[in-house]
Design a protein that fits this description.
Aminopeptidase, five-stranded mixed β-sheet, single chain, 2 helices
Length: 93
């Protein structure tokens, strides 16, 4: 996982702290999966690739932990669609 991204398991979210704010990806752990529900990047930080960096690190962590993912969050779904190397992480429906 990227050294800038942490898994805040108490709050059920991955966090990417930058000087001007915090981007987060919320998830729900369920039966060997992480269900990604929402990604938030403050408006002032948008357009810098922070959400992609955050989700890449979160997916890397899920892979390392042997978990599958459910991309309910539209951003996570688009990220996986645009990165075919991540599609094997998606839990069968």
């Amino acid at each position: 996982m990227s050294p800038d991204v942490t898994d805040n398991r108490e709050r059920l979210r991955y966090e990417l702290r930058v000087e001007k704010g915090l981007a987060v990806a919320y998830y729900e752990p369920r039966d060997g999966t992480l269900v990604f529900t929402h990604t938030v990047v403050p408006e002032a930080l948008r357009g810098q690739g922070l959400a992609s960096k955050l989700i890449k690190a979160a997916l890397d962590d899920a892979r390392r932990r042997g978990l599958k993912v459910v991309p309910q969050c539209p951003f996570v779904a688009r990220y996986i669609e645009g990165h075919p190397e991540e599609r094997d992480l998606v839990a069968p429906s």
